[in-house]
Specification:
The chain is an alpha/beta fold. Helices cover about 40% and strands about 15% of the residues. The protein is built from 18 helices and 14 strands. It has two domains: about 120 residues, P-loop containing nucleotide triphosphate hydrolases (Rossmann fold, 3-Layer(aba) Sandwich); about 280 residues, no CATH class.
Length: about 425
């Protein structure tokens, strides 16, 4: 992109570096980790080394202790940014040894395009020495220069005082979804986005996955990813995916883990509070980038304009992804879940705050909000009592409206506009 956009997680990462010796910045390829880490290094007079460089990677693998003594010795510029650390896991133990000898904060900022806690060949978790931050692609607020915080706004009473009409109509959301969150996609025309996304997936399945898991079949992994994209934000039923792809469940489990490790997919785990002792324990799976989900499922903006079922599924995944990104900087500590019980009472996205309060969210493609959309939210309100903070239906309708006790209809754009 020609214009540098500030990342909302930057102040939080900078603050963490004042308390901890190692901060790990993880996220998918091409979401902007290297750019952000480089910016933090510049602001703090740090130094950047990338493990995508063949010479640097060979040196780190051959003599990790010597590599660190050269770049992270006393008096060296800090933080030392080691970009794409998953490509040189040999450095992890050397970093652990270095930190144990010198626990000053702000020594290392590591970036990784694979979840280090899920990689089998990661020799140590750096527990007690490192903290992690997950960076996604651009949030809608970041694209507009806004530090949005939807859940904190809800807890802070913004539903009563700051809920306002959206400038977006239903016709605008297909374009928002098609633009996605990858920095490289923001200024590309539709045809070039498709070319970029094809190359992106090909690179991941043919190189990055092969580095993490031997005997990976790129065609089979791609077929699993396409199927998940076509069922965006749907429940993960492994037996069904196995049948549809012809991949044994034992192999499929490894592929699903691999996709999550590389941040190509994410999950909303099931929320099981035993309200009626019959909750369904299946996660919902979504692709964090809406443009990639559209591309892999062969859904176009024109189709979204006329088919609510396509738009609804993509919007549900979009909402989950936006809230996941906001977790990295929100003033409220919260976790994301999905909820469904055996009576088919289902809530698309359930937000549980660290004090036990709950915000329940339904996502609808419709530009007309009906009272029936609230029936499962009302069930949770009755079951949870005072723990239930708000039930919210997010839709393409531009105007907010109240639908009874702690029940609200809001435009999807409230995710970045509320408060």
């Amino acid at each position: 992109m020609s214009t540098f956009l500030r990342r909302n997680a930057e102040p939080w990462i900078t603050e963490l570096l004042t308390y901890f010796p190692v901060v790990i910045l993880q996220g998918g390829r091409q979401v902007g980790k290297s750019t952000l880490a480089g910016e933090i290094a510049i602001q703090n007079d740090g130094h950047v080394i990338t493990m995508d460089n063949d010479n640097a990677r060979a040196s780190a693998a051959t003599d990790p202790a010597g590599f660190l003594s050269l770049h992270a010795s006393t008096g060296a510029r800090e933080p030392l940014v080691i970009d794409e650390i998953q490509r040189a896991p040999e450095l992890i133990l050397a970093i652990k040894e270095s930190v144990d000898a010198d626990r000053r904060p702000g020594r290392f900022l590591l970036t990784g395009s694979a979840d280090l806690h899920r990689i089998e060949r990661t020799p140590d978790s750096l527990a007690g020495r490192a903290v992690s931050v997950t960076l996604g692609g651009f949030s809608q607020g970041e694209l507009q220069g806004i530090r949005e915080d939807f859940i904190h706004a809800v807890t802070d009473g913004a539903l009563e005082s700051h809920a306002s009409a959206s400038s977006l109509s239903r016709a605008d959301y297909p374009g928002v979804l098609a633009r996605g969150s990858f920095p490289e996609l923001q200024q590309l025309p539709d045809r070039m986005r498709a070319v970029w996304l094809d190359a992106y997936v090909s690179s991941l399945v043919n190189r990055d996955m092969a580095e993490l898991m031997r005997l990976t079949d790129p065609a089979r992994v791609t077929s699993v990813l396409r199927l998940l994209a076509a069922n965006q934000a749907g429940e993960l039923v492994k037996a069904r995916v196995s049948k549809q792809t012809g991949i044994p469940e034992s192999t499929l489990t490894g592929y699903l883990t691999l996709l999550r490790t590389l941040y190509l997919t994410d999950e909303l785990p099931p929320w099981t509070p035993n309200l009626a002792r019959r909750e369904i324990g299946r996660p919902k799976v979504f692709l964090p980038d809406s443009a990639l989900a559209m591309h892999l499922s062969a859904v176009t903006k024109a189709q979204l304009s006329t088919h609510d079922e396509y738009l609804g599924a993509l919007l549900e995944g979009f909402v989950a992804a936006e809230l996941r990104r906001q977790q990295s900087w929100s003033q409220s500590d919260f976790q994301l879940f999905a909820y469904r019980n055996s009576n088919n009472r289902e809530v698309d996205c359930l937000v549980e705050l660290n004090d036990g309060r709950v915000v329940a969210i339904e996502v609808k493609a419709s530009s007309t909000v009906r009272s029936s959309y609230f029936r499962h939210l009302e069930f949770l309100r009755e079951e949870l009592g005072e723990r239930f903070l708000a039930g919210i239906v997010l839709s393409t309708a531009p105007d907010p409206a109240r639908f009874g006790d702690r029940m609200w209809a809001l435009p999807v754009s409230s995710l970045w506009e509320l408060g």
